[in-house]
Amino acid sequence: MAQAAHTLNPSKPLGHGHSVKRHTGLMDWITTVDHKKIAILYLIAGGLFFGIGGFEAILIRIQLIKPMNSFLDAQTFNELITMHGTTMIFLGVMPVIFALMNAVIPLQIGARDVAFPFLNALGFWTFLFGGILLNLSWVMGGAPDAGWTAYTPLSTSTYSTTHGVDFYTIGLQIAGLGTLIGGINFLATIITMRAPGMSFMRMPMFAWTTFITSAIILFAFPAITVGLVLLTFDRIIGANFFEVGAGGNPILWQHIFWIFGHPEVYILILPAFGIISEVIPTFARKRLFGYSSMVFATILIAFLGFMVWAHHMFTTGLGPVANALFSVSTMLIAVPTGIKIFNWLLTMWGGQVRFTTPNLFAVGFIPTFTMGGVTGVMLASAPADFQFHDTYFVVAHFHYVIVGGLVLGLFAGLHYWWPKMFGRMLSEKLGKWTFWTFILGFHLTFFVQHFLGLMGMQRRVFTYLPNQHFDVLNLVSTIGAFLMGVGMIIFLTNIFLTSRKPADAAADPWEDGRTLEWSIPSPPPEYNFKQTPLVRGIDAFWKEKTAGHTEMTPAEPVGSIHMPSATMLPFLMSVGIFIAGLGFMFSRDEFKSDFVGFMFNNYLVTAIGLLITFGSMLMRSLFDDQGWHIEPEELEGEQI
Amino acid sequence: MTGKIQKSTNSEKRGRLMMKTWQAVKRLLPMTAIFGLILAGCGREDLSVLRPQGPAAESSLGLMKLSIAIMVVVLLIVFSIAAYVIIRFRRKPGQQEIPKQVEGNFKLEVLWTVIPLILVVVLAVPTVKAVFAAGNDHANDKNAIKVKVTGHQFWWEFEYTDYGVKTAQDLVIPKGKDIAFELTTADVLHSFWVPSLSGKIDTNPAGTINRFSFSAPNEGVYRGKCAELCGPSHGLMEFKVKSVSEDAFEQWIASMKSPVAVLPEDPELAKTFKNQCLKCHAIGDQGLAVGPNLTGIGSREAIAGILLNDDTGVDGAPIEENLKTWLHDPQSVKPGNLMPNPKDLGLSDAEIDGIAAYLANYTLD
Questions:
Q1: What are phi and psi of A19, to 5 degrees?
Q2: What are the φ/ψ torsions at residue B133 (nearest 5 degrees)?
Q3: Within the 8-67 window of chain B, which residues sit less than 8 Å (CB to CB) from chain A?
Q4: Contact across the interface for B132 and A377, Cβ inside 8 Å
Q5: Minimum Cα–Cα distance from B95: chain A residue
Q6: Which of A201, A239, A352, B154 could bridge to A233 as Cys pair (CB 3.0-4.6 Å)?
Q7: Does pLDDT of A221 surpass 70?
């Protein structure tokens, strides 16, 4: 939209768009539509949930430190494993991914914001309120306890009698709405807002993986939403989608869940691939090896990702034909993934590799993720999976992929882009400590779990008998988990100490920045680019630097910049959905107070929530928001 | 280096070689230690996937070995290239010239697309073969023993459909014979897993009933587990598979059909037992089949699947003690299980101990 306004009226601002209400403090954060601030919001919220999920993991590991431990009771343990998985996937790592996408993508493609800044804010707030709702379950009668996969019938109201699973279904629907909105937004942004000259095949790899990830979100999230709606109906208003006695089918849930759940794995890992593809070339001072095959591999992985869901269900009993087909299709994913691994290695070949903290994480990612990848191929073989399935071998595998892959990638990305986001360099010394403690702790925790699984320890057990050769390996695993915790604490210390230093990071603090974000100040001004840059090739900024330029060639004269207005509406809409969800969840409960009972049982609370949401939508539709402009004089005054 | 060695005397040479060997040993020590740990840690014979005791588990392990072999090769290649690159292409101090910007290499990229494809085919062919082999469930095999497995929260019921015998927790099978299973659940999903004999399969509700089969060529007791989250005591939902000789199996079936002792000798205790316990449990031809069948419980390997009977006290406790532990407070042993606390049913401590003693001595011939 910003650019459309420009082409219409390049020098003169629109007359009525001037007045702008500037908020400060908390109100600024609640009303912001700036992608850079939303990135920070995502990072804080995601970091908070990641911390909660990590704490849950530590509790789980303490319980498993020795056989027949009684640190936690069985019910609490099941709640912890459910919430650990759900929180980490939906509320921990995904928001941090979105934080990096928001912070980086508009800058990388030379845009002033995302395509729909309002939706961007809405996406964040719905995610946050969904996440809060889910975590409220701890203090409102018990957390969900049926595993993050919530297999029916265990998750139906017959066998899970608290409101736990309701918090799961409704919280995830609300949070999922935010993810879907975010995905659509990035699709539109990348399709429409690339700077002049930036063709698709000149996009940085992180922009590519964000694009493909968003496409996967667009197709995968509706599936889980439908599943969650059906389960909500079963639980709250007595429908029978998964009720065997009434003709329902619990296996249906497994299909719906994994048709979402497997692509979700690629939603998580592809952005990490993108980050690694940015960090490694920067610190090898070499362009990405085999760029076009990287793009091709990304698309192929996304496509195959939708064809393999039933490999999570080999032991469900789908029959030999399905098992054989899904075995082979799963193995095929190894091919494009292998292409990526070798391309990264060959990027470093002949380069000048510098081991900064981000690059340590990126280089550490390659062997670690490869280990997760090869166990993935082993799991793909259905007859072998009959043994692996639902054991600690699987736990080890997916932690190698998600922690050893995605989380290492996120650490690489956070250390790499931290100066761009906050204008401050994280301490390299503490960063390296983070890396070594975290990766050592990680391998200590999860490598031994492969063997636990093979020796007969099934997953999701709250305790185990002695004399099964499990004791030592579990002890090692718990020690490793604590070491990972130490790594996280060092990282937080690093953030804290860095925040107290002056914000003096250079525009290109790593000195070898290749992409557009390094051509503008750290942190970038509100409008990102004073003049939209002209892109003349892949690695646009590097290309200009090697041509002897210090900055990008502008694609337009300095002119007034159209900015979207800050607004409270996305926040209000999310509050409304939150209230509606909570109201619906408790609509069949009995309450001591007549008034409260009246409000809930007649769906009045739900109605009030929906009224807030729809009222806000109406406001948004009826009152035109023209935005506001930053004038050339202001731009010059800031001496950029 | 070689020049230096040539100049030195023989003894020096030997000394240096020994030093070298020692250094190499020192370097290899952690690795040897790890391998030692792994080899020693293959797990229990009656539990570990790595020590298969039957053809089904062997077939799975065979595929695992093949895939591990392929994957170790892949890992070695990736690790060596990574190590080489990391060491060889470090940025040296003062290095300023820009490295050559390589776009890609068509031949190399084709190479690392084709080789993985070949590796995938190498693994896919035996996988598909084994998948279809595993599909042979022996359901129509006259020589196979048919067993209907029903998962309950949190115990296992085994019904020998051809013999009309029902039991719980201990699955007794004749060695060497194919056992044709039909698996279902009475409540939530469970997964039936005897790692040393075979892979697992889920117990689904009616409409999606699973069938599969395995056999145990050797006599022995194997540990089985539930492998699908099924509630609080999922981790405690264990069972045993007892592989016995064919004669012993026939004898076991016969004594299950007409058990010797039926009720406690003490008439008062017998009355309590009948009025309370047999409302859910069955013993011989008496009682109901809501809870686990108790016929010949004194001969079983464990109480409630998890309290192992071991008179030596190494792996568990004597059976009578286990029964007392269980009967005095079932929830503390298996949280979330459906058995009412006998004390809530009005049984006194003495009665509970009496029933424990009776059950402990209620063995089959």
A1: -65, 135
A2: -65, -40
A3: 38, 41-44, 47-50, 57, 59-61, 63-64, 67
A4: no
A5: A352
A6: A239
A7: yes
> Distance (Å, rounded) from C-alpha B254 to C-alpha B260?
11
pTM comes to 0.92
Which residues, including other chains, have CB under 8 Å from residue B172's CB and lie 6 or more apart? B242, B244, B249, B252
Distances (CA, A) of B288 to A617, B160, B256, B283, B337: 61, 17, 16, 8, 18
- Our CA-based measurement puts residue A309 at a distance from the nearest CA of chain B, in whole angstroms, of 17
Give the DSSP letter string of B338-354: -PPPTTTTT--HHHHHH
Nearest Cα residue to B131 out of A332, A307, A454, A317: A317
User: CB A352 to CB B89 under 8 A?
Assistant: yes
Could you give the ipTM of this predicted complex? 0.91
Radius of gyration of chain B (CA): 30
User: Chain A: residue nearest B136 by CA?
Assistant: A320
Which stretch of DSSP H or E encloses residue A67?
none
**Hey, are the CB atoms on B90 and A352 less than 8 Å from each other?**
yes
pLDDT tens profile B78-105: 999 999 999 999 998 888 888 999 998 9
Where do we find the tokens 């095929």?
A332
In single-letter form, the type of residue at position B332 comes to S
Mind giving me the DSSP string for A365-397?
A: HHHHHHHHHHHHHHHHSHHHHHHHTTBHHHHHH
Residue B189 has its nearest CB partner, among A151, A338, A461, at A151
CA distances from A442 to A60, A228, B125 (A): 15, 33, 34
CA distance B57 to chain A (A): 8
Task: Give dist(CA A251, CA A313) in Å, integer.
Answer: 9
- Percent of chain B at pLDDT exceeding 90: 74
- Å between B269 CA and nearest CA of chain A: 33
How does the average pLDDT of chain B come out, rounded? Answer: 89
HEC assignment per residue over A165-195: HHHHHHHHHHHHHHHHHHHHHHHHHHHHCCC
pLDDT tens track for A366-411: 999 999 999 999 999 999 999 999 999 999 999 999 999 999 999 9
Is A456–B43 a contact, with Cβ atoms under 8 angstroms apart?
Answer: yes
Q: Pick from A154, A164, A158, A80: which is nearest to B230 by CA?
A: A154
B327 pLDDT more than 70: yes
Query: Is A291's CB within 8 Å of B104's CB?
Result: yes
| Separation CA A588–CA A600 (nearest Å) | 8
The span from the CA of A269 to the CA of A405, in Å, is 7
The answer to whether the CB of A418 falls within 8 A of the CB of A424 is yes
Instruction: Give A298-328 pLDDT, tens digit per residue.
Output: 999 999 999 999 999 999 999 999 999 999 9
